[in-house]
Design a protein that fits this description.
Layout lengths: L23 H6 L14 H10 L13 H7 L17 H8 L4 H4 L8 H8 L16 H10 L14 H10 L14 H10 L14 H10 L14 H13 L10
Helix pairs in contact: 2-3, 3-4, 4-6, 6-7, 7-8, 8-9, 9-10, 10-11
Length: 257
């Protein structure tokens, strides 16, 4: 990469002037390099490299006017300087501060105004800590919660407005709750239910309007419940049902009952 000074600009678009920098001595000592590792550069990668080389300087930049500098400084600064950054107007700064602080600070960001922060917060929490996020307005936040929260706490998401959230719920809810989702409006959810129900419980979905659900049923339902599926309107459902009937061992002649 070229060291041409005309190509180095700060966050306000001004030319970077090494001679006026408070860290001018670092350049001769190899602690920074124009267009490569510079706290005054507008590019985050170069700022990040500067703090990787000089982490001890991060404390002095947690209140810098450029949000990229504050966000990257938060990765290296003294922990006692980070709590005020949880109220920073930039979500990247808030998250970089929160990820290094004790969990009690992270809990504050469960209702952060920015979805990306809430998504990341959800990846750090468990069970009861996640419960308030079950009602998050953003479906992807709820999706992350659905994947992480204890199955016994998924009840609210069984009727979530988003199909993908309900699908995850269907995969994880306690077995005893499965029949409560067997009538879900979306076949993608009912397929997940069919995959988990025991063969003896699949009869409830034998007449499902979606052939994919009936196919799963025909593949796994108790052999004695295959009647009707062998004449299904869908050829694939009919085929798997008939194949299972044909594979049943014949009962010995003369065996009663």
């Amino acid at each position: 990469m070229s060291d041409d000074i005309d190509e180095a600009r700060d966050w306000q678009g001004k030319e970077v002037d090494c001679a006026a920098c408070t860290h001018v001595e670092l350049r001769t000592a190899g602690g920074c390099r124009l267009m490569h590792a510079c706290v005054n550069d507008r590019y985050a990668r170069r700022i990040d490299r500067f703090f990787n080389w000089n982490p001890e300087l991060a404390d002095g930049y947690v209140a810098h006017p450029h949000f990229e500098v504050r966000a990257i400084a938060a990765r290296h600064a003294n922990l006692f300087l980070l709590p005020p950054l949880l109220d920073d107007p930039e979500e990247t700064v808030r998250w970089n501060a929160a990820r290094r602080l004790p969990k009690r600070f992270v809990l504050r960001l469960r209702s952060d105004p920015h979805r990306e922060v809430r998504i990341r917060v959800a990846t750090l929490l468990d069970d009861d800590e996640l419960a308030p996020m079950l009602a998050d307005q953003d479906y992807y936040v709820r999706l992350v919660v659905a994947r992480r929260i204890a199955p016994a706490l998924l009840g609210r998401l069984m009727t979530d407005e988003e199909v993908e959230v309900r699908r995850v719920a269907a995969r994880r809810i306690p077995y005893d709750w499965l029949l409560g989702m067997a009538g879900d409006a979306d076949p993608a959810v009912r397929i997940e239910i069919a995959k988990r129900l025991s063969p003896n419980s699949l009869a409830v979905l034998r007449r499902d309007p979606d052939w994919r659900v009936r196919y799963e049923v025909a593949s796994r339902i108790a052999a004695g419940e295959l009647a009707g599926l062998t004449e299904d309107e869908d050829s694939m459902v009919k085929e798997v049902a008939r194949a299972r009937v044909a594979a049943r061992p014949e009962r010995p002649r003369g065996s009663g009952g």
